[in-house]
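pipeline stage [seq->struct] | target=diguanylate cyclase | organism=Scandinavium lactucae | residues=479
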Amino acid sequence: MRSISIPRLTVFSEAHILRNALFLFAITTLFYAVGAMLRLVQELSLFWPLNAVMAGIFARYVWLNRLHYYAICYGAMLLFDVVTTQWGMASLIINASNMVFIVIVAQLVMRDKHQAGSEPGPINALRLFYYCLIAAVFCALLGAIGSEGIDRQSFMPSLADWFSEQFSTGVLILPCVMTLTLPHEITRIHGKQLLPVLFLVLSVLAAIAVGGAGSLAFPLSALIWCAIRYPLPVTCALTLITGAAEIILVANSVINLAVSGPLQTAQLFSTRLGIATLAISPVIVSTSVAAINNLMRQVSLRADFDFLTRVYSRSGLYEALKKQPVNASQHMTVMLLDIDFFKSVNDNHGHECGDYVLTAFARQVREVVGEQGLVARMGGEEFVVAAKTLDPLDGYQLAENIRRRVESTVFHWRQQPLRTTVSIGIGSGTLDTRDTIDAFNELLVEADEYLYRAKKAGRNKTCAKSVAETDIRHEEASA
């Protein structure tokens, strides 16, 4: 599968105040202009993306929630109105209502982050739904007051219009902004991967053909399919596109809810609320799937790695070996390592000290082995190394490097120096036509036999198939 790498793009950075200010001003102005183009004759706006986009940005980047950044956002709105409208004092109130929505959503999300004690991963879609509801109420109250002298609607219809518009766009856009991530690479897409999107398009076309209030729910099953098949950011983007498309199609009577009569303002109000309520469902499903996948990865990580020493567990080692490329001529060395007299460490200094020694020992072995092999804890104080080596001598030299490194290391526990040694048994051979797992198991049996010989010979030794040769090299290394 071919892929195209994409360079990383960073828009906001906590350390670059001036750049943050310029981007906030530019984004605010851009989406204010987009919203202005979407205004209809008898409504303040049909689809107003600015507030949800800015609320998502402030909610996503906690360190942007400063008074001067909010002031820049508000100033950009006022400046745009000065250049394009004659609203005067009404602009102060209307744009203040925009800021009310932005600040309320951002502060509520920040409260969640503070309570969590760290940056959260997946968004809580249900809470975001309620936050949009609360923010839309206060935004609509102030916005309806400010717009009385601008449009021809009375207070209550204007209040309903503001509320439904802010709530629907917030629910549709906020999840998209808060989960938006640019891919690091573009991979080739297969036809089967596009089936949920195709089903989504067909469901929208079916809503246009059938009409009626129930047609708005037609895309729901397709969106849930998307939530199951696609990552959370993609699901949020598809939900936004579908929800916005339905609102626009209903407003222009392409989807005829009334069927027998023209669309009324109350129906558009109901449409917006209904679509917002439906749109949250696939987002909730997608966040749930993301949470389940994350949990499965954590469970898999716990199963594949030893919690204490952070090296592979026995099962994790076998899974890693299965993923190794098979090369019949590849030489493999399997080492079985046992910390000498480890029981005395636990007996004399306690199990907490024993855990410290195990962790430090595993780190030493990982540093020596590096990328050449895999390190795993088999249980207790026994570890195994599966390494790619040139020949038996190369494997023996690697084992000796480990033994000498451990022998020369002084561990410090509560200001007391501790020394330890390790006995190593080696099994080595080529893979030939054998499966990697089968070859490893055979070499592990051999390594276990020579580990026993290393212990019997007095410990702190490396033993391999040619004992005499091993002993000679060991004496030369010690000399």
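stage status: PASS
auto-comment: DSSP finds 16 helices and nine strands in the chain. Confidence is low (pLDDT under 50) at residues 1-6, 41-45, 118-122, 259-263.
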